[in-house]
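Quick entry, no commentary yet.
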Amino acid sequence: QVQPVESGGGSVQAGGSLRLSCVASGHGYSSFCMGWFRQAPGKEREGVAGIESDGTTTYGGSVKGRFTIFKDDAKNTLYLQMNSLKPEDTAMYYCAALGYKDYNCLEVEYADWGQGTQVTVSS
C-alpha cells in the first residue's frame, strides 16, 4: 500500500557478498508475489528473484546458485542475499511488491516499486 524502501547496496569486489533489504509496509503484501529486479545502463530490466506467499522461489538463470531471496512477513521485509558477486551483477536493484498474482513472480505485474539501490561490483 506504500512505496517499498530498499537498502543495503554498495560497492564490493568480485567474489564478495551483499544483503539487500526491502521494507514493504501495508496490508496484504504477504498474500502476493514479491520480487527483486535489476537494470544496468543500456540493458533491459531483468528479473532476479521472486517469491510467492508460501515461500516458493524463482531465480533468473544468471544468479541461480549465488543469490537467495527470503522474507520475514512479521517485519514486512524482503531480503536478497547475494554471494559470489560478479562485475556483471552491477546494476540498480529494485524491490517490487504486491504482485497482481501469486504465481510465476518474475513475470507478473507489480503495483508497488521501490526507488532502487545501487550495487557495483569491481573486478
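second:
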Amino acid sequence: QVQLVESGGGLVQPGGSLRLSCAASGSIFNIYAMGWYRQAPGKQRELVAAITSGSSTNYADSVKGRFTISRDNAKNTVYLQMNSLKPEDTAVYYCNAQIATDYYWGQGTQVTVSS
C-alpha cells in the first residue's frame, strides 16, 4: 500500500510563485521516478515535469525555465517550484510515483492563477 500526499496548491496572481510538495509513504522499495501531471478543464492530463532516481529531469515545453522539479530521496518527497505563473497554468496538479512496475497517484491539488 502506497500513499502520495500533496500540499502547496492554492490561489496565486499572475507572475507569482507556488511550491508543491508530495510525500510518498507505505511499502516503498524502489522508486524509479516521480513526477507532476496536471489536468485543466476540458483537457487531458499532461506531464508537467518528472525526475528519476538519478535526478535526470524532463519538462513540458510550456513550463521550461519557469518550473523546477527536485526530490529528496531520503524523504521520498518530490517538489515542484513554480515561478512566473500564468493563467494557463491553472489546473489540478497530480503527483505520480513509479514504484517497481506500478504507478501511484495522489489525490490532486488545485492551482489557480488569476488576478
